[in-house]
């Protein structure tokens, strides 16, 4: 994870740091070397010196390294203003000292400029064994450079990647901004997220210290503010009170990838087994419940069953309407077109609402429904021998209360 106080500010500062430090050191080294060659002394009168398009190539390096330890001081003390200054070293020691100078934290960083990943190989050629993957968003450290190949280290992976598919330094940083998610961590309690980048704008949410907020990269950038999202809320927070980070990754070895895939498969299989067990348990519970309900219903006599269906179908109707519903059941029993018993007529598929039958039977039907069932079984029939009923208004027939009988 790479951390910056402000991503865009860091980007600009990185360029300035690179240019300013390189210019200072180049000028100082040129001046120090020139002083050595000409025999000038450090305590010579300080005058403002301007150098333009100067190339200094020292014949020897005697005393140069002592001067290099005070390069920045010498450059400032002498009042040097420089442009296009080039120093050509005569020895490899001086070149190595220059190249080992770290200008910024991205100078030795490598990223794969691809949509998914590139292989990390054991040798600097495509025929060698693949040992890992450098994925989009992963950061690697540059170890060495070969012809068209970079030797890198990242996580537990060490090997070679094709330079054709990679970027380094500032280009790697710019790519990271594009492909890596960014988030802002709050440094204070009670940080206010405002609707606009202004302390006078509406407060949309208040977050506690340590909260991680997604950086809204599509929002308008405002100096001193960071656009963020938190849940379904979005707005701006003061940049002084958050730490902006990029969520970068590390390369993965093929062994690590295989282990992760195996673990993922095992977890998926375990979850599937758990879900299957839960489904089986639910099925068994449903069967047990159905059996219990059936036992309750089976133990009920005809009067109770008929009273229960009357309560379910016409419990809020008038007493005449309740008897009429019971009479429909009895008319079917005697018709020859249906089952010849109350139980089978009531439980014929799609004929009556029986889902609450067991609970009504278990609790006992209300008295008016029991009395209506007894009258219907004794031959009382307000329906006039009809075999069907439904809500009134849906069909022509004899209307009793809210039902029409036909």
Report on the structure:
The chain is α+β, with helices and mostly antiparallel strands and 406 residues long. Among the domains are: 9-99, no CATH class; 181-246, SH3 Domains (SH3 type barrels), CATH 2.30.30; 302-405, Cell wall hydrolase SleB, domain 1 (Arc Repressor Mutant, subunit A), CATH 1.10.10. It has 11 helices and 23 strands. The protein has helices spanning 7-38, 64-68, 71-77, 92-99, 169-179, 254-298, 302-314, 319-335, 342-346, 357-363, 367-377, and strands at residues 2-4, 50-52, 55-56, 81-83, 86-87, 109-112, 117-121, 130-135, 140-146, 149-154, 157-162, 166-168, 182-186, 191-194, 203-207, 212-215, 225-230, 233-238, 242-246, 252-253, 389-391, 398-400, 403-405. Strands 1-19-13-16-17-18 form a 6-stranded antiparallel sheet, with no helix packed on it. Strands 11-10-9-6-12 form a 5-stranded antiparallel sheet, with helices on one face. Strands 7-8-20 form a 3-stranded antiparallel sheet. Strand 14 and strand 15 (203-207) form a beta hairpin. The longest helix is centred in the C-terminal third of the chain and has 45 residues, at 254-298. Mean pLDDT is 80; it is low at 4-102.
Topology readout:
Elements: E1 2-4, H1 7-38, E2 50-52, E3 55-56, H2 64-68, H3 71-77, E4 81-83, E5 86-87, H4 92-99, E6 109-112, E7 117-121, E8 130-135, E9 140-146, E10 149-154, E11 157-162, E12 166-168, H5 169-179, E13 182-186, E14 191-194, E15 203-207, E16 212-215, E17 225-230, E18 233-238, E19 242-246, E20 252-253, H6 254-298, H7 302-314, H8 319-335, H9 342-346, H10 357-363, H11 367-377, E21 389-391, E22 398-400, E23 403-405
Parallel strand pairs: 2-4, 3-5
Antiparallel strand pairs: 1-19, 6-9, 6-12, 7-8, 8-20, 9-10, 10-11, 13-16, 13-19, 14-15, 16-17, 17-18, 21-23, 22-23
Helix pairs in contact: 1-3, 1-5, 6-10, 7-8, 7-11, 8-11
